[in-house]
Amino acid sequence: DYDQVDARLLNIVAYGLNVDAWSSSWPDSIKRAALKTAREIQSKKGTVWAVREVLKALGQGDAEIIERVQRRRYDDGNRFDAGLIWSDSANQWATFAIRLKQPVTEAQGRLIIDAVSAVKRASAHLLYVDWATAQLRWDMQLYWDSGYTFDLISA
Question: Is the pLDDT of residue 133 over 80?
Answer without folding.
Answer: no
